[in-house]
Design brief:
The chain is an alpha/beta fold and about 350 residues long. The chain is about 40% helix and about 20% strand. The chain has a five-stranded mixed β-sheet with strand order 3-2-1-4-5, sandwiched between helices. α3 crosses α9, α5 packs across α7 and α7 runs parallel beside α8. The two termini are about 30 Å apart.
């Protein structure tokens, strides 16, 4: 018997819907919200309003593209958290209403868990290279930076995480200092290819164990730029590529240092990256270089599954469905939702 799940993702500023059948992604639609570029970051109130406008047409298109009728659904999955509460509320409310009207189960999914499960997001006719367990994953996004050991599809252990800012947040805030519009991370990645990664040195955080810190690094970057601009008002424009390459190199090296340490401590050589920042080319290159150096088996999701998307929510929900996990109609969205 087929298990067909409609999944909805609305944790931040992307409204996404996907159809997943037996763990295979049949459709994965994403509606972006460009309005936030005018404000240099996501505005929660605008995000929730945009989700209300997008959720019905995105779900309708996902069903049509997959060729699935609503009455053929086995369950409705949704992102329960973490995320922006107003944004989550739109997705949760829609999912609850649809599931209730169809008389089918609800499945709430942790957004961070789903990012890791993106490694198992396959599509019809495409073979996916999937990791074995235990699997060590560096989860890097705009709001989170974690080291996670996956011992099974539904068994995740966080062994390290940021104590302040996330790596993606560091990228975006440094980009803002350089006058780069939101989201700045992809632009820094592109500019870095033309710059010298060793042109500037920034203070690296000294945090024990497997935890991360990026607030001091951001401050170091800000002070250097500020001091140099006082000497030369055209400093940013003249050195933007070098500044981008240098801050990117520093962030990536901080991430890789901790990942190396985690692999050494756990003895795990099945290694992957996930989350929006895993689309960064320098991070991907660094992972491949370490794989050759240490004999790691590495796994990197396709670009479409690195950013926020409902496909990863549906794949996670599929394994929860098989395990008999269901979510009640009384459920509420959770802005903070530990894995």
């Amino acid at each position: 018997m087929h298990v067909t799940i409609l999944a909805i993702e609305s944790s931040c500023d992307d409204t996404s819907a996907a159809l997943v059948r037996n763990g295979i992604v049949l459709s994965n639609l994403i509606a972006n919200q460009k309005v936030h570029r005018n404000y240099g970051g996501v505005v929660p109130e605008l995000a929730s309003r945009a989700h209300q406008q997008h959720v019905v047409p995105v779900v309708d298109q996902a069903l049509k593209e997959a060729g699935v009728e609503k009455n053929r659904l086995s369950a409705v999955a949704f992102t329960q958290g973490p995320g922006l509460l107003g944004s989550l509320l739109v997705g949760v409310s829609f999912a609850k209403g649809l599931a209730l009207s169809l008389g089918i189960p609800l499945i709430g999914v942790n957004h961070l868990h789903a990012h890791i499960m993106a490694h198992w997001a396959g599509e019809p006719g495409k073979k996916v290279k999937t990791p074995g367990f235990p699997f060590l994953c560096l989860l890097v996004s705009g709001g989170h930076t974690q080291l996670v050991v996956a011992r099974g599809f539904l068994e995740m252990e966080v062994i390290g995480q940021t104590i302040d800012d996330a790596a993606g947040e560091a990228f975006d805030k440094c980009a803002k200092v350089l006058g780069i519009p939101y989201p700045g991370g992809p632009v820094i990645d592109r500019l870095s290819r033309e710059g010298d990664p060793h042109a500037f040195a920034f203070a690296r955080p000294r945090i024990g164990g497997l935890d991360f810190s990026f607030s001091g690094l951001k401050t170091s970057f800000l002070y250097l730029v500020h001091d140099e601009v006082e000497k030369n008002p055209r400093f940013i424009e003249e050195r933007k590529a070098d500044l981008s390459a240098s801050i990117q190199h520093t962030i990536v090296e901080v991430l890789m240092d901790k990942l190396e340490k985690a692999s050494e401590q756990t003895g795990i050589r099945e290694i992957g990256i996930a989350g929006g920042v895993s689309a960064n080319q320098a991070l991907r290159d660094a992972l491949e270089e370490r794989a050759k150096r240490y004999g790691w088996n590495i796994y990197i999701p396709e670009f479409i599954y690195t950013t926020d998307n409902a496909g990863m929510i549906g794949v996670t929900a599929y394994y929860k469905y098989l395990a008999g996990e269901r979510t009640g109609q009384e459920t509420v969205p959770l802005a903070r939702f530990p894995m």
